[in-house]
């Protein structure tokens, strides 16, 4: 990897390029060490260029959207982190909505509902970007990305830009083809197109208010990654963790929320290692008491393969 040639190019980008930049402030959990280089990209063209330069220099890259569903290691991330902030959106003909991957998903839900388009109400208040939601097949309240995505534009690891139908993503519960790929083989989501239907703006706004109220009362505030584990088939991760007696359990500065046991909280002083140790402890306890293995929903970034397991 020729990091120095990438750094030389990046030095011309001004404040958009940040050397040895701590990643904690870019994540919802507020933990994580530095990226060798972080580049803030506010247009799709900037994303394509940054990734192209990294490829040419043999430097690994990783994309961060809102950083809401990741646990970045204390050692940080070697190579380039692209902070995807390209956020243009457009309502197209017949209820089709196009968005750049850095657009906030909750804002897209709000805007489309206000224009009388139904299908994204479930994303009211969902933290993170369109790209992160697509990769993780985010969902809530009976809806998810898989049920409304029509197609997407990808930047492939070899530099080609391709258009794929939603079926290409092979979505499953909080899973997609991209999420199943090893990091170095993953394409970057550049844009997504959603197929929505006509709805009554007032009814849609009411539904979204209900969802926001539910989130406000049931989800803990503060630094958290949202649901840490996927729900095992026919069960709820939160219920299992609570039944295992782990509500309020702490390792270092990381704690199982008293409000919702599938949410881990950074009480202020957590390290990524604290959070990782808490995840392992919960998995071990739930497996010991109920014989069920909880699978993380969050992605571990900057950890080696053994640590990710
Ligand atoms: C309080 C709270 C509540 C939450 N509630 C829910 C919920 O109800 N339902 C739900 O599903 N999730 C929920 N989440 C989790 C999170 O909001 C979603 O997973 C969200 O879609 C993540 O988007 P992001 O932009 O933050 O992705 P990130 O965390 O930045 O990234 C997640 C993964 O996607 C990859 N990625 C991001 N953007 C791109 C891109 N453009 N191209 C390729 N790869 C990319 C990253 O490399 C990483 O592997 C919640 C989180 C919090 C903190």
Which keywords apply here?
single chain; 309 residues; alpha+beta; Uridine Diphospho-n-acetylenolpyruvylglucosamine Reductase, domain 2; Uridine Diphospho-n-acetylenolpyruvylglucosamine Reductase, domain 3; Uridine Diphospho-n-acetylenolpyruvylglucosamine Reductase, domain 1; 3 domains; five-stranded antiparallel β-sheet; four-stranded mixed β-sheet; 29% helix; globular; binds flavin-adenine dinucleotide
Describe, in short, the structure shown.
29% of the residues lie in helices and 26% in strands. It is of the alpha+beta class and 309 residues long. The two termini are 26 Å apart.
Fold and architecture overview:
- The protein has 309 residues and is of the alpha+beta class.
- The chain folds into 3 domains: 3-84, Uridine Diphospho-n-acetylenolpyruvylglucosamine Reductase, domain 2, CATH 3.30.43; 89-216, Uridine Diphospho-n-acetylenolpyruvylglucosamine Reductase, domain 3, CATH 3.30.465; 220-308, Alpha-Beta Complex (Uridine Diphospho-n-acetylenolpyruvylglucosamine Reductase, domain 1).
- It has helices at 3-10, 44-57, 105-114, 130-136, 177-180, 201-218, 237-243, 272-290, 305-308; strands spanning 17-22, 34-41, 61-64, 70-72, 77-84, 89-91, 96-100, 117-118, 139-140, 143-144, 149-155, 161-165, 188-195, 197-198, 224-227, 250-251, 254-256, 263-266, 299-301.
- The strands form 6 sheets. It has a 5-stranded antiparallel beta sheet with strand order 6-7-13-11-12. A 4-stranded mixed beta sheet has the order 1-2-5-3, covered by helices on one side. The chain has a 4-stranded antiparallel beta sheet with strand order 15-18-17-16.
- The protein binds flavin-adenine dinucleotide (FAD).
- The site of flavin-adenine dinucleotide has 31 residues, from strand 3, helix 4, strand 9, strand 13 and strand 15.
């Amino acid at each position: 990897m020729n990091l120095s040639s990438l750094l030389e190019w990046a030095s011309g980008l001004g404040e958009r390029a940040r050397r040895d930049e701590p990643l904690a402030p870019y994540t919802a959990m507020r933990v994580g060490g530095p990226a060798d280089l972080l580049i803030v990209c506010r247009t799709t063209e900037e994303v394509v260029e940054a990734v192209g330069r990294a490829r040419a220099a043999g430097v690994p890259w990783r994309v961060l959207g809102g950083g809401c569903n990741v646990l970045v290691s204390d050692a940080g991330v070697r190579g380039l982190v692209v902070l995807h902030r390209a956020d243009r959106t457009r309502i197209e003909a017949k209820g089709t909505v196009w968005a750049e991957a850095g657009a906030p998903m909750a804002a897209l839900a709000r805007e489309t509902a206000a224009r009388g388009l139904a299908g994204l109400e479930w994303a009211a208040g969902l933290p993170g970007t369109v790209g992160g939601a697509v990769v993780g097949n985010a969902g809530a309240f009976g809806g998810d990305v898989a049920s409304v995505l029509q197609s997407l534009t990808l930047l492939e690891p070899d530099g080609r830009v391709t258009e794929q139908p939603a079926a290409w993503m092979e979505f499953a519960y909080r899973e997609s083809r991209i999420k199943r790929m090893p990091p170095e083989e993953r394409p970057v989501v550049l844009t997504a197109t959603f197929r929505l239907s006509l709805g009554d703006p007032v009814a849609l706004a009411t539904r979204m208010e209900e969802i926001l109220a539910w989130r406000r009362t049931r989800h803990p505030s503060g630094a958290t990654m949202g649901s840490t584990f996927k729900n095992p088939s026919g069960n709820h991760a939160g219920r299992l963790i609570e039944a295992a007696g782990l509500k309020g359990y702490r390792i270092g500065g990381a704690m199982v929320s008293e409000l919702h046991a599938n949410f881990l909280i950074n009480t202020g002083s957590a390290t990524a290692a604290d959070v990782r140790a808490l995840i392992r402890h919960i998995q071990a306890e739930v497996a010991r008491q109920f014989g069920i293995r909880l699978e993380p929903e969050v992605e571990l970034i900057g950890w080696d393969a053994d640590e990710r397991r």
